[in-house]
Each structure stands twice: as C-alpha cells, then as structure tokens.
Write a structure and sequence with these properties.
single chain, alpha+beta, 5-stranded antiparallel β-sheet, 4-stranded antiparallel β-sheet
Length: 285
Amino acid sequence: MKVFQISIIFTCFSLGFFNCDDSKNSSSAESLLALGLDGSGIISSCDLRNPETGRGIFVADEIISAPTSNGIGFKDSDCLVDGIRGQGKFNGSLDVYSLEDSGSGSAVVLRWSGVKVLPTSGIDFIVYENPFFVGVQNNSNSFDNVFMEPLIVEVGNDLVNWCGWNPEYTNSDPNTFVGNPIYWQRFAGITPFGYNQDTNPMTVSEVFDTDIVNGGGGGDGFDLADSNFGNSGSGCDGTLKSEIQTNGFTYIKISAAKTILTSLPIDSAHANPDIDGVIAKSITP
C-alpha cells in the first residue's frame, strides 16, 4: 500500500467519518511508510458509489475473483467496480482495492456484465492503479520519476487461457528498480491519472488520451492490435489471439507484476498494487 496523508486518516477516525476522499501524495510518502499503515482498518465507502454510465465510457462492473476481499477499507473489492476517481499528477486515489504480493490475493479478475470488450481504433481499454509523480508538484517536475506498483494485464474468454502484452522492464541494470515509466513497457500501474468521474469527468476523447502530462486523463492504455499482444499469457495461442483481436474478450485479469515475472526488481514498497478500476471504449450491444 502506498502512502497517505496522516492528518486526513486520523481525522477520519477521530470524527467517525468513513467517506473521506483525500488522497495520498508524494510529500507524505516517507512518514507513512515509517509508521507502517496499511489501511486495513478503514471502512470503505466504495459500496455507496456507482460507476458512470451512458457516455461512451464503459466501466468493468462485475467482480469474478478477488480472493482476499473482506469488505473493509482497501480490501473492499467494491472499490474495483465503483468508477474511476483519480487525483491528478501528484496524488493517488483512495478509491482502490489492494492486491497481495503473493498467493491467490495477488490477482483479480473482472468483466463487463453480460458483454464483451470489442477491438476499436487505438486504445481499447485503460487500467487505473494509483501511481503519482515524485518531486516538485508543479510543471517544473521532470515527470520521469513515478511512485509505482507495477501490474501485469491479461485478457481472455474462459477464465483458463489468457493473452497478454509481453511486458518488459528495460532498464540497463535489470536488478535495480527505477521509477521512470520509460523502462516499464506494457505494464499497468505506471501512469498517474486525473480523470475523476465526480470532480473531473473530462470528455471521452480526453479520457482515452493517457498523456496526463499534456492534459490527457492518464492511466495505462492497452490496444488489442498491439504487435506485442499474444506474446505472453498462460494458454495464449494463435487461435485465441486471433479470436480476441477479431471479436473481443470477456474477462480481464490484473496481477501484481512480480508474481508473474519473478525476476523483476520490485521491493516490498512497490509490491502491493492498488487498483482503482478499468474502463473500455467499446462493448457489444
């Protein structure tokens, strides 16, 4: 779990509020890591919220698997399907579900109720974790250092066979963790996001522009037509790849990256991703 503004959390407890939406940010990172707070005792308000509908943004709204959900705080799986609530370049959302760093709780499976996600032009869907840029909180930031907890994304139609995007960590020293997004190719959990369905709804075109530095909504976009699609995943063969690229997919599996690529240099501070949600551009009628 990443870091949170201590005063906000303590205020929530002391006043008995369970609906506080103030977010963590990079300036409070070290102090909260030192205290070791993991958010497990915070009662979630996610079950009181609903995803937006009706304007060309389709939220994954059905939980197929979230094995370690207990309905409390950041272990409330409702936070996966209640909509997207980013907090901008320098803050991470609290509207999240936290994965474990190993075992069955290190992955979740979602779907769009009763429909399939269809291939379109450009980005087909976006995964939102809650990374944030580290450093000065204005446009003098170099935007090359992100507090991130990488995710691996796969899609499929039967909950058994999955196709992915062959994610790669390309730092020249593969044994050293560097938070520059340029080294994390085809992972999720890498790009901060400002799209917030309540306070910053954005246009559909802005939402599907993931370049947050230059005004887009942010998040990590995936394209079924990407040349890397189908080059990873358990049980992904040419037939399944072609079927998904032609007719779309039903399920999305999102995993803590190191549980799949065990050689990644991800330490404990970056090993428990927090998922806000997933949106698609086009679904079956």
